[in-house]
Amino acid sequence: MAKDTQEVSGSNRPVGEPEPAVRGGGLPLPGLKHWRTRRGISQAELARRADLSSDYLFKVESGRRACRPDAAELIADLLGVGMGALRRKPGAAFDMETPPKPDRPKVAYRHVHQAYLRIILEGAVGSAYTAMDEREIEERLEGSAWEEALEIVRAREREAGYLQDALGARGVLEDPDLPEDVRAFLEAVLESFPDLDIHLLAMVRRRETSEEGHEALTKAMRALL
Fold first, then answer.
1. Backbone φ/ψ region at 130: left (φ over 0), alpha (ψ -120 to 50), beta
2. Angle at alpha carbon of residue 182, lines to 176 and 186, rounded to 5°
3. Could you read off the pLDDT of 22-35 as tens digits, one per residue?
4. 107 neighbors 176 (Cβ within 8 angstroms)
5. What is the Cα–Cα distance from 134 to 217, expressed in whole angstroms?
6. CA dist., res. 33 & res. 41, Å (int)
7. How far apart are CA 24 and CA 5, in angstroms?
8. Is 179 helix (H, G, I), strand (E, B) or coil?
9. Which residues of 174-193 are buried (b: 16+ CB within 10 A; e: fewer)?
10. Is 214 left (phi over 0), alpha (psi -120 to 50) or beta?
11. 27 SS3 class
12. Distance between alpha carbon 62 and the CA centroid of its chain, in Å?
């Protein structure tokens, strides 16, 4: 993996103004820690998702080096923010964007949605991998045979097909009375296929040593493209 070797010095630019690229095109990301912690993602987890070393991300976040533009764009996508937000200093501009903390902690509605979806999918198609978080599936596949990866991806394909048909036929996602958090959850579930599945197959293929398994996983990935 190529590394950005440029160090970043302190800047006196006004708060709220994006930091300019340094010589060579590297991008300082002074807002990275703010948005990472706001999203509740650890530094190690973000580094894993972005396929960066923990040391590299630590130096970018602490301002000791600039970030490669392609890595910066990926990080922005993973955090669900614009590039400009990562390139602005934390301060007054961030306070305007960040809503005040609620007096009471919010209920983890996503877990509730996942529980209901798991019940529905298991009853309808006999599996519920689509109701699991990406990390849950990755942990399940750690140390598993390549055949299990194929089984999980095939099951997710069946589940996604069922949900597409069931939700589309009833116009569920277009229902104005559907709570927005439920709509966002269901849309995210549907949009995870097939990108997540390709990622899972690629993850297993990287460690697969048998020619048979490598070819089977490659074929399955191509079928999803």
1. alpha
2. 105
3. 665 688 999 999 88
4. no
5. 18
6. 10
7. 10
8. coil
9. eeeeeeeebeebbeebeeeb
10. alpha
11. strand
12. 22
Whole-model pTM: value is 0.53
> By CB neighbour count within 10 A (0-12 exposed, 13-18 middle, 19+ buried), where does 123 fall?
exposed
- 25 residue type, one letter: G
Question: 1-100 architecture in CATH?
Answer: Orthogonal Bundle (1.10)
Residue 119 has a pLDDT of 96
Between CA 196 and CA 188 the distance in angstroms is 11
Separation between Cα atoms, residue 27 and residue 216, nearest integer Å:
40
- Specify the higher pLDDT residue, 220 or 88: 220
Cα atoms in the 13 Å half-sphere on the side-chain side of 44: 0
Distance CA 195, CA 192 (A): 6
Q: Is the peptide bond before 99 cis (omega within 30 degrees of 0)?
A: no
Task: Return d(Cα 216, Cα 210) in angstroms, integer.
Answer: 10
> Which position has the higher pLDDT, 41 or 14?
41
CB 120: neighbour CB atoms within 10 A?
Answer: 16
CA distances from 203 to 53, 93, 139 (A): 17, 39, 11
In this prediction, residues 121-135 reach a mean pLDDT of 94
Domain layout of the chain by residue ranges = 1-100, 109-224
Numbers of helices and strands, H then E, in the chain? 12, 0
The span from the CA of 128 to the CA of 156, in Å, is 8
C-beta atoms surrounding 138 within 10 Å = 16
